[in-house]
Amino acid sequence: MPDSYPMSWKDLYLQTLLESDEEKLKELVHATEQAIVLRAISASASQDERSDMAVAKASLLAIKVHKLGWPSVPTAGS
Predict the structure, then answer these.
(1) CB-based contacts of 59, cutoff 8 Å, min separation 6
(2) Distance between CA atoms of 36 and 48, rounded to whole angstroms?
């Protein structure tokens, strides 16, 4: 993909899943979240893609908590 085209949220997400360097991981999580938000506001995102993005967002949260040491988010009833 040429540099003039932004990476898709899916490509960024896959890179995030494979990254082991903590600093790069922080940058990729942020970039992936931004790409997901931009794609989510797009009228052309299908319901299936929106479901995939929801799964990716949950996974990114798990990465933040378990790999980057962020505090966990309280769930309802906790």
Answers:
(1) 13, 17
(2) 14
Predicted TM-score (pTM) above 0.85: no
CA distance to 38, 40, 43, 46, 77, per residue, from 16 (Å): 17, 19, 25, 23, 31
b/e per residue, 61-74, with b = 16+ CB within 10 A?
Answer: eebbeeeeeeeeee
Per the structure, the count of domains in the chain is 1
Name the residue range of residue 52's domain. Answer: 30-67
CA–CA distance, 51 with 62 (Å, rounded to integer): 17
Cα–Cα distance measured from residue 7 to residue 54, given in angstroms and rounded to the nearest whole number: 18
Q: Is the pLDDT of residue 36 over 90?
A: yes
